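Input sequence (635 aa), recorded before submission:
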Amino acid sequence: MLSTGRHRPSSVPGTFTRTGFTGTLCRVMSAPWLDVLDDTIRACAAHNRPDLAERLREKRARQLDPKLRVLVIGEPGQGKSQLVNAMVNAPVCPVGDDATTTVPTFVQHAETPSAALVRGASIANTPTERIPVPIDQLASRVSADQGGGDLVRAEIGIPRALLDSGLVLIDTPGVGDLRPAHTASTFAALLQADAVLMVSDATAELTGSELELLKRVMTSCPNVTVVLTKIDIAVQWRRVVERNRAHLARAGVAAKLIPVSAALRLRAAKTGDKALNAESGFPELLACVRQDIVAAADVLARRTVAVTAASAIKQLVTPVREELTARGSRAAGGKGAEDTIATLNEAQRRIDELRRRSARWQTVLADEMADLVSDIEYDLRDRTRKIMREVDKTFETADPALGWDKFESWLEDSLTEAATTNFAWLLDRSEWVAEKVAKSFPVVRDDLLPGSIFPDDVLDRVSPMEKPVIEKFSVVQKAFTGLKGSYGGVLMFGLATSLAGMPLINAISLGAGALFGGKSIIDESDQRLRRRQAAAKSAAARHVDDFFIKFSKDCRDAARHIQRSLRNHFSTLAEELQETLLESARSARRAVQDDNSERERRSLEAKRELDHLVALYQRVQALAGGQAPPLGISA
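Predicted structure, token format:
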């Protein structure tokens, strides 16, 4: 009869039967690891670590469960599901290129084949719903329900002698899957495992990620067997086996390595070929499961409890040991006063450093803001000059009388864009200045940079642009100008033709008068156009100049407002830091008056706590057969 009370061997070698639950509970309640676990839980509660205590209580409840859970874990595509199928000689887990395990699948004993989907908050909690499904539809139902988010595991029951002893094989999603929820469910199932079969295929040696996974698994469950699958397709699998054993030895992982082929095992089961079955490696694997896991359930429980308890005790020992070390260093040689003086000197040094930096940041702020105002004004002047060059270029050919409204709209948009860009640069540079000034402070705080120091309503619109006087050239004016110009032509050509005996008013003199009159009209039109263009340029120049004067004044005012806000913010911050340092100095002075008797009482109490934890850890070492690592302290 096994000491754990979980399982016991029958009279027939190689077969196992489950014990009754009452007998199991009685024997488990008397197991030595249970006392160690209960004492560790009480120690966690006494040291104000309810998180550790709760984790140990879950482990205690798990160890009282008569079932023996063996987790099959590994990276995707290593043959985990096929391994489980081959172990139970049944296609219970989906395999293939288009099939993958998405939730932990529990394969356990049942008198008749059955399957169910379990929903709940998490795999560790009590399920809220258990839905029976046909066993041949389990894989498709799991795949169809992937998006639900509340499916935590699948359960399969089949009649197998291997599982009749209470053994439960858990097929898990691949670790490192691109879907984090799958990996999370695997590690959640790891917390329930009594033993682990770490699966890696024989086509390649163990990778760094697999070795890291193996180490992580052993921190929760030290009972690990490495299974090398797919030896039927790996020509040099024996060499890979030797290399993997060397990798495990270098990594300090004491795990048995068994090479197997699930394909050969399943083929041998169909044909009844014993030689092929032996070649598959599964007889050795199943013997390992029966002897090292099922028959050694008490040893597994001891190791698991020892690892969990040792991890908790180490976390409890660390703060106690640090406290004793700190108190011992202060008490040795009467160094308490020296420490206090050192604290005072450090506080005074930091105060002096803060004062030096205060003068530095004020100089940095003044210089940077002066440069900022100069750069902003130059940028604005450059932008307005570009606008005026565009105005001059436009009115070299355009007539203000025909498109003044469109031009006025363009000018306003251009000035608005220039103002927006210029002011945005002002704000960006101001933020940069604030960050540069903040670097002068010897602290890192969330409120080191000011929240809002930038004005929102400093920009007022310039008065509307005055429309220049545009001379009109009416029909009457054109007629009058044409008459004045034609008079000279008629007279000049009439006199010239009169010498030839022609009258003063003739066809030639009238034609010449018409030409001279037309040219007069054209010349007058050109002169009036140039006057309108000059008036438009002058009006635009005045408006742009008014805009520059007004907006540059607004930007300077905004810069001064920002500078004052930054100065006030950092001055307040410097005062707060100085007050904090002064309070630290006052606290250091008050520390001189600490009660030595209270310090001694706490030191003695910490020593007693440490002695108790050391004694408890020694019990854990004894429980693990001396394999638990030392704490690094003496009792």
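Checked by second reader. Residues 1-30 have pLDDT under 50 and may be disordered.
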